[in-house]
Amino acid sequence: MQGVKNLFQTIINDLRRGRHLETYALVGIGIILIVLDLFGTTLLADDKLTVIIAALLILMFRSRSELTSADIAASTQQVIQEIQKNIEAHVELDQVLQDRQSYEPFREFVQDATVLWVYGASGINVLKNTRDLNSIVSKPNGQLHVIIQDPTEAASMNVLHQQLDKYNDLQSDIQSTLFTLAALARQYSGKMEHRLLDYSPGFSLLVVDPDGPNGRLSVEFYGYRNDEIEERMHIIITRQQSQYWFEYWAKQFQIMWDHAKPPAQP
Predict the structure, then answer these.
(1) Residue 229 burial by CB count (10 A; 0-12/13-18/19+): exposed, middle or buried?
(2) What are the pLDDT digits (tens) for 174-222?
(3) Domains plus CATH for the chain?
(4) pTM of the predicted model, to two decimals?
């Protein structure tokens, strides 16, 4: 405790005498960046950047005292080693590649969303969340785009029957979804659109706020004849985690959207 008190007294004395002002300014800025980064309010999405900043701050703060070249070299080497450890840290794939049981509630995933893009063979598991969908589309700048499979394309439907679990009644699910989509389209004309795709890409896709800084998406892979829907693998990607892969999958949806066709009017 006395050591901390002495440290603060030294800092106060330095500031009064105008010593090491550049160092203290940089340390202060670095601390602010770390706090903002930990709370996810900056673009420093990679945890390694926080570690690097913190390590460099420690070195800078220590250098405010008179250090020998050997001390500086030793401290620098220690910082480099710590950075390398974090960069080379083992990634647990089970934390990245997950099954349906690890899905967070739909309401939490789309929380604060203004734009939602959905692709699914039938999309029924998303479209059943009508209250959450309404909360998105009813916003002044709300938008909902939904793509599902064209039930009249026999070849594509046959492929999906091989991909999806055996308990899936795809035709019935698509008809139920089309009914819900038609109702939403009438209620939110110009803000909600849906289209039909003639080809199964082998995955489903959910994109939240594709152009926003907090954009996030989920890609679920159908696989081949899974016994249960819970067995499907999915991955969550945020723009902050990887701008490249987030924009890749968002573009995949845009390509499908451009290729898909609006449903025939009754």
Answers:
(1) middle
(2) 999 999 999 998 899 889 999 999 988 889 899 999 999 999 999 988 8
(3) 2-87 (no CATH), 95-259 (3.30.870.10)
(4) 0.65
